[in-house]
């Protein structure tokens, strides 16, 4: 029996206010004149993953808690405009928000409003079970209510992926996600020993593959059956304007390959291509690479690398 959805995305909805700054860190001053301006738009990690997966042709559904407020309206409109199925659950504290400071090189500093979350926040179990029963795979954001969905998703027999973002390898909050997913993404940004952390995830959890993204340095791939593999970064075809969403895009490309039965190395190439494309999209925008472009770019890269190897 075929599933209705290829991927169920849980959590990670929110609204960002983008502020372009002349440099990071931003020196103290009484005021700054900002260009090209300040803009508020829908789109945090779960929203961008749902967008990226849908752009790659995967049947995607998103569930999260959002508020009955103007920020929530932006998220609803985001999903409607892109034909992304969205199940919303009321968030009493209001829709999650953040301010992103973006410098001229596209680097980002995010300030998250932590006042919106409450210990009682939950996604209804019966609703999660219903959507899980209609899905092949679940991508779980590390937002608080999603930790409680992991046993339900495993009970439903789904494979699970998660992105730990800038985990330091020590914060216990992330462990339920790190050790409860089959595919784990993590940034190297805050890790003191990347390989050690990746191996610990494999040893203590259920992961089959762990990916550590390292920005312009590429990414690192580790499976239980192999050694640590470095995957080179892909040079974007357009100028880099913003790194916001690059990690989410990488995860989308990787999952696209995995659900198609590709090798981990091929999945990582797809991730690198999708991540590079995301770096060419302004922080105030929301765009993702399509399936045809991803496959064409990956084929071209494979061909050039093969030619270089043969010539050598």
Automatic annotation (TrEMBL):
<feature type="domain" description="Carbohydrate kinase PfkB">
    <location>
        <begin position="49"/>
        <end position="286"/>
    </location>
</feature>
<dbReference type="InterPro" id="IPR011611">
    <property type="entry name" value="PfkB_dom"/>
</dbReference>
<keyword id="KW-0808">Transferase</keyword>
<dbReference type="InterPro" id="IPR029056">
    <property type="entry name" value="Ribokinase-like"/>
</dbReference>
<dbReference type="Pfam" id="PF00294">
    <property type="entry name" value="PfkB"/>
</dbReference>
<keyword id="KW-0418">Kinase</keyword>
<protein>
    <recommendedName>
        <fullName>Carbohydrate kinase PfkB domain-containing protein</fullName>
    </recommendedName>
</protein>
């Amino acid at each position: 029996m075929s599933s209705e959805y290829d991927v169920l995305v849980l959590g990670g909805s929110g609204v960002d206010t983008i502020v372009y700054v002349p440099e990071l860190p931003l020196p103290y001053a009484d005021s700054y004149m900002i260009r090209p301006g300040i803009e508020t738009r829908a789109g945090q990690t779960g929203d961008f993953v749902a967008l990226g997966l849908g752009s790659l042709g995967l049947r995607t559904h998103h569930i999260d808690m959002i508020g009955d407020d103007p920020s929530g309206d932006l998220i609803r409109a985001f999903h409607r405009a892109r034909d992304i199925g969205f199940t919303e659950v009321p968030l009493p504290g209001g829709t999650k928000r953040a301010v992103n400071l973006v410098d001229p090189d596209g680097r980002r500093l995010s300030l998250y409003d932590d006042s919106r979350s409450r210990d009682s926040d939950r996604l209804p179990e019966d609703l999660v079970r219903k959507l899980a029963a209609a899905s092949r795979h679940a991508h779980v954001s590390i937002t608080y209510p999603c930790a409680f969905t992991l046993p339900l998703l495993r009970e439903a027999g789904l494979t699970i992926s998660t992105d730990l973002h800038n985990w330091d390898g020590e914060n216990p909050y992330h462990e339920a996600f790190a050790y409860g997913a089959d595919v784990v993404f993590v940034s190297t940004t805050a890790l003191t020993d990347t390989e050690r952390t990746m191996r610990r995830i494999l040893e203590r959890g259920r992961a089959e593959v762990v990916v550590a993204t390292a920005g312009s340095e590429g990414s690192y791939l580790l499976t239980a059956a192999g050694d640590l593999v470095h995957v080179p970064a892909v040079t974007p075809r357009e100028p880099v304007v913003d790194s916001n969403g690059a990690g989410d895009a990488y995860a989308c490309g990787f999952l696209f390959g995995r659900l198609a039965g590709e090798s981990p190395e091929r999945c990582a190439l797809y991730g690198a291509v999708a991540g590079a494309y995301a770096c060419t999209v302004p922080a105030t925008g929301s765009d993702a690479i399509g399936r045809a472009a991803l496959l064409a770019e990956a084929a071209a890269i494979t061909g050039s690398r093969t030619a270089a190897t043969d010539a050598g």
